[in-house]
Amino acid sequence: MPLDQHIINDLRPFDVSAKIKELQEVFNQLTYSHVPIQKDGIYIGCLSETDVYCFDGNEKVEDVLYAVEHFFVEQSAIWLDVLDTFALNDSNLMPVLDSNHNYLGYYLLIDIISLFRNTPFFAEPGGTIIIEKAYKDYSLSEICQIVESNNVKMLGVFVSKIKNDMVQVIIKIENSGLSAIFENFRRYGYTIISGHEDDRFLKTLKDRSAYLNRYLNL
Fold this sequence. Notes:
Blueprint: E1 14-15, H1 20-29, E2 34-39, E3 42-48, H2 49-52, E4 73-74, H3 79-89, E5 93-97, E6 103-108, H4 109-117, H5 120-123, E7 127-134, H6 140-148, E8 154-163, E9 166-173, H7 178-187, E10 191-195, H8 200-216
Parallel strand pairs: 1-2, 4-5
Antiparallel strand pairs: 2-3, 5-6, 7-9, 7-10, 8-9
Helix pairs in contact: 3-4
């Protein structure tokens, strides 16, 4: 998935000789979490909005270099790595450098998230299942086999949570035969956390239980 078309270059890095009040003025006008900084024409990192507002406006960037955060992505980075770098640095602006570490521009978080939303996992119609199992016992290949053994196509799968030796997996599939898939997952020891289609298995159990209670009360 090419990302070059999402590089924005309307904000050049501030030189270390710039006054802090110049950065404060930019943050007053824009909603960026960070702005890029350069020294001798070379990108060296970013200053955050939070830090910049704490500094004296008459100070220079070179006086507060200790606060510079050193993050960026290369032009060749795939969008999942870019998204991960956004998350690790709690930023909504991500500087982009070429293979020679020249500053090219930046990505905005909202643009990268929009790419994620346009993947088949989100964009294609279908059913979503969240399953859980002990981390040491689960297998992605087994999960795929269970789904495809029901003649259902998978649109995506990813591990969404690992906690207390348990793992949760989100599966996106064609919206057909979810109840049969639920039963197969249970047969292999998976717990169904949720699913978009009604889980007929649980409904049947509840109906039978209610019928038995009525029978015993006769």
